[in-house]
Amino acid sequence: MRTNRRDFIKVSAGGAAALSVASTGAWLSGCTSSQAATGMRFLRPEDVEMLKALTPAILSGQINATDTDKIQGVVESFDQLLGTTSQIVVDLMLQAFDALNFMPSRGLMTGQWSAWSNASLADANNALARLRNSNISLLNAVYAATTRLVISSYYLRPENQRSTGYPGPPKKVSGSVPAVEAPEPGEETP
Amino acid sequence: MTNLSVVTLGSDTDPYRKAEERGWSITNAADLDSSVTVEADVVIVGTGAGGGTAAETLTKAGLSVVLLEAGPLKTSSEFDMDEESAYADLYQEGTGRANKSGSIVILQGRSVGGSTTVNWTTSFRTPPQTLQFWADKMGVKGLSEEELAPFFQQMETRLNIHRWGTPPNPNNEQLAIAAKELGYSWDIIHRNVKGCLNLGYCGLGCPVDAKQSMLVTTIPTALDNKAKLYHHAQVDRVLIEGDSVVGVEASALKNGAWGKTGQTITVRATRTILSGGGINTPAVLLRSKAPDPHARIGKRTFLHPTTLSLAIYDKEIDPYYGAPQSVYSDHFQWQTVDTGPVGFKLEAPPLQPAFTAGFYGAMGDTLTDSMAKLSHTNCLIALMRDGFSEQSQGGAVELNDRGEPIVNYELNDYLLEGVRRAWNVMVEMQFAAGAKTVRPAHKQAEPYRSWADAKKAIASFPYTPFGVTVGSAHVMGGSAMGEDETRTVVNSQGKFHHLDNLYVMDGSLFPTSIGANPQLSIYGLVLKLSSQLASEFSA
Questions:
Q1: What is the Cα–Cα distance from B300 to B113, expressed in whole angstroms?
Q2: Crossing angle for the helix pair B519-538 and B49-60, nearest 10 degrees?
Q3: Is A173 in Cβ contact with B406 (below 8 Å)?
């Protein structure tokens, strides 16, 4: 069941009290009336801006705030990853993003009162800390889901896995090439 | 360092390459251009540990069987040990499944073979304490240790379950080293493998069919015995006529996408067996509006809530390689059965990079710095034995507006106290084994350099469901068995209390969690229940 955006804003206008009520069981009654951004299946333009702001904080040390291509890559992977989950996951994620995107819930939840496109790395870190450390479990859930999906979007890609020193799996070839005996872990390999 | 990326593997072990030659009847329901109705002696919903075992037993008894699987048919020819494709293809909701609040990630399989296609091969018989508790407190009959022993033995032979003879990988070895150091009991794990190359990718689908999952054992036998398999076929409901179930109705799902094609598969059968596992079996019963006078369907769903501690060593661990699980400790598992604090089993998980990053419970520089040391990282996990104490009554499966299942299960103070106790044990063990830094998975934790610092931090953390990282790979219960209709869903033979010809044969039968990785518990129990059902047919 989809409610419209105005209903959601009314809920969020109740501020922390409404969020607290929502956290007792029901997720925010979100809305997804706007269209997905160009090139995206699920993420709307506002979601893309928000994730662009949060990604360099979540993946700091891997991605700098100035790495616009890498950030865009993570956001695109995030969108694709959503497509491998389920309608349940996508609905909840987009409802959470509604709350993170629109005033005044965005400001109340994250302290980010101006648009995400204005957020500095410090602002993004502050917003994430507010969600993580809130006493409202709904906000903790938004933090957990958002960070897990961003982190997975990045580390699922073999090229990013190599940054951990992981050499990668054995190579699988099609056809009837016989399996090669693998060395014991811990043994040196050529 | 070990580098398996230089190793090349062929894919000639895949039994499904000879499907046509062997005359197997396999239908991808996504490709159906009209709805179909088929008849069988038995329809089995689900192809995991329960469905696979039941299918082999019943087809060997000469019965005609239709197997329905919501997930896709993916076989070793496609298993390339890549996390991204494996999670998307082989797991429920692409590993995005979680409890209702979002605080517990739930890993469950979803393809032909169910969770056996992606589990880590760890095989334990049901602990005798668990069976005794079921008999004494849950009203379960005929499932004593002695009564089940021959069935476990038969499945152990069938699936080549044996004590792992190769030395544990360094990730598991740390558990043994620490247990020896601190005087805790420990042992080597039994695994269902044949010709295992010790690669470490069981969780992404065995690339060489060494794992004796349902995908390569019982399901091929059932197909040889003329079972019909439909995949991409999601059962909406059982068909109820009067006091009896006469089959099921399934929707064909689209290839590689969400949503239904609009075609249906109706199976009319003398007996209907639900083997969709925890969550999905109770969901079918709820969607079917099966009689439930005591509101028991979906209740007592258990998760073995599992928390972790990650440690970094000076030496190479290469925790992504080697048999994923080979050492365990039950030292803290059975100190009491149903009184006192929750018991937990200690194991080690495989650490492929995305899996590790997703469960680290950290972000930013802490995550990046930790992940940069992945090759030197060891992880211990504690699986909490839920469902025995008065303070652990499990969660409930509910349906959303679309009829999809949601698990309402939250970590209460009893389980959060278990997390704290487990961290105290695991972190001390990792330092005892020589770790340089250890980080228990609390969102406020840092990598600690000494046991004293870590101990102080563990004592000072606030314990809330979102403060701690807890996941689950073992969904159990929800269709609890027992003789008391007011407390259970099916009887001790797996027969639904309130309708004829409807059976449950999977992990959802368990009236508590198992207290051990559950696959062999499902195999043994379902072999017994399906053998009884087969003999009813011949009687």
A1: 25
A2: 30
A3: no
Looking from the CA of B388 toward its CB, the CA atoms found within 13 Å total 27
**Could you tell me the CA-to-CA distances from B59 to B54, B70, B265, B503 in Å, in that order?**
8, 21, 21, 17
CA distance A45 to B434: 49
Contact A61 B369 (CB under 8 A): yes
d(CA B233, CA B249): 9
DSSP-derived secondary structure letter, A37: P
- Which of B97, B102, B354 is the closest to A145 by Cβ? B102
- B338: nearest Cα among B386, B304, B389, B384: B389
- The identity of residue A13, as a single letter, is A
Dihedral in degrees, nearest 10, Cα atoms A129, A131, A137, A141: -110
The SS3 assignment for B409 reads coil
SS3 content of chain B, % helix, strand, coil (to 5): 30, 25, 45
Q: Which two tokens stand for residue B483?
A: 């003789």
| Cβ contacts of A163 within 8 Å, gap of 6 or more | A62, B371, B372
Residues 26-55 of A with CB under 8 A from B: none
Alpha helical stretches, state H, B72-182: 83-90, 128-137, 145-158, 170-182
Quickly tell me which residue has 């067996």 as its tokens.
Answer: B273
Q: What percent of chain B has pLDDT over 90?
A: 97
CB-based contact A144:A53 (threshold 8 Å)? no
User: Under an 8 A CB cutoff, do A187 and B169 touch?
Assistant: no
Interval A22-56: pLDDT, tens: 333 334 444 445 799 999 999 999 999 999 999 99
**B327 - beta bridge partners?**
B188
What gap in Å lies between CA A150 and CA A76, rounded to an integer?
Answer: 10
CA–CA distance, B521 with B496 (Å, rounded to integer): 20
- B493-498: which pairs have CB atoms within 8 A and are 24 or more residues apart? B493/B142, B493/B529, B493/B532, B493/B533, B494/B529, B494/B533, B496/B245, B496/B285, B496/B290, B498/B290, B498/B291, B498/B292, B498/B293
Per-residue pLDDT tens over the stretch B116-175: 999 999 999 999 999 999 999 999 999 999 999 999 999 999 999 999 999 999 999 999
DSSP-based three-state secondary structure for B311: strand
Which tokens go with B324? 């994923």
Q: How far apart are CA B88 and CA B107, in angstroms?
A: 12
- Is residue A13 within 8 Å of residue A7, measured between CB atoms? no
Say whether pLDDT at B205 is over 50: yes
Helices then strands (H, E): number in chain A? 9, 1
DSSP string, B463-503: --TTTB-EEES--EESS-B-S-TTT-SB-TTSBBTTSBTEE
Q: Which two tokens stand for residue B85?
A: 């494709």
- CB of A81 less than 8 A from some CB of B: yes
Interface contact A86-B96, CB threshold 8 A: yes
